[in-house]
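To: structure desk
From: M.T.
Subject: fold request, one chain
Message: Could you run this one when you get a chance? Sequence is below, nothing fancy, just the single chain.
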Amino acid sequence: MRIERLAIIGVGLIGGSLARALRAAGAVGEIVGCGRSLANLERARALGVVDHITHDPAEAVRGADLVFLAVPLGAMRGALAAMRDSLDPEAIITDGGSVKCSVIEDARAVFGAVPPRLVPGHPIAGTEHSGVEASFAELYRERRVILTPLPETDPDALARVTAMWQACGAEVTEMSVAHHDEVLAATSHLPHMLAFGLVDALARMRENDEIFRYAAGGFRDFTRIASSNPVMWRDICLANREALSAMLARFSIEMTDLAESIRRADGEQLHEIFARARAARDRSIAPPRSSAPAQLPVVGFVAPSGSGKTTLLRRLVAALHARGQRVGYLKHAHHRFDLDRPGKDSYELRAAGAAQTLLASRERWALQVENTQKGTDPDLESMLARFERERLDLVLVEGFKHAHYRKIEVYRAALGQPPLYPNDPEIIALVTDDPPPVMPHPPVFSLADLDGLMEFITRCPR
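Reply: Done. Structure tokens follow.
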């Protein structure tokens, strides 16, 4: 399944991560991003998350074969109304809203009836961060996505949305609208209410500075989600108020009973509650899988040809390997290359039209994937997503000098070219045997100082 033109309304964590994941999977062609914040949209385009940007939903969906709505629930009806008259008749609409009954009510209000090619959906994934900067291609990998199709939902649209999420690495399930909203009220919405409520209650106590100063890991873990987007959670509460109110009322009774057991010093009852809760959690919830990518240090090396960059990298990789570091290497090639030779079986089969060719032997394997966007430079984030992160300690990148990531410049005055670091704030160090030509400058390492450079790199965050 390939989406030729994808429109994402709301390019934040959820929408941006979908775009990154589909790009990494080669499952999308052109992506149009739509939102209210020009700065966020421009950043999304600079990061390669989207190809085109606009503030107008009608312009965004024009010509799109699939539209993904990733806006707060309170903005859903307005977004649907703005795009209604510009949608292609065959366009598929899906969303990432946490409450499905309200999305369906909004669609019915805007279109008069629920469009057959609307597939309500909800990816059960996220972090407490927001904005396109927080997005990453692995967000949905091994996560559940719940689709809530209606009797009138077009089977082809449902199949295509299912395939889209599977391309992102997600496990797709189906559920009725009412059941979805009840389940999420208990498993997602209620925990957020508890975190928001606890932090707010403590913040309003007179000695709150001392309380937060001595907060331990358990408090930080439990209240992490209180850093989530307040607008989004206000809309979720209002949209799912019936199911969430019922859960809060039930939980209030449980807390009253617990408080009474503590007041009576009823140790037997407290032990029974805690043991029952522990057993239920251990039985029902698998060990947590991180929703964020492994925090590998990713550092690029940039310089014009002839600077000694590749020689430095060769020595650096050898030295890191000698220290037991597992190094990944990514190079941006500006010329055509081929790992095969004409006449070999794999070469001929790839030339015949194989989209992906995997060569495997006892020593190594290599996967060659044809770039479907000929003439377009590869996206750094998409390429990094190809690495098996659990088998690496860091990734060194050669090139991609225009991408937004941390880089080290190799500078040689004899080449007669100006340095890059004065105009690139993401250059974090300079490797040179010449005096830095422009002040101020980032930290400087000599070409021979491999130990200092290795120490700097291994401490460098992504």
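Reply (cont.): Residues 177-203 form the longest helix (27 residues). Let me know if you need anything else for the meeting.
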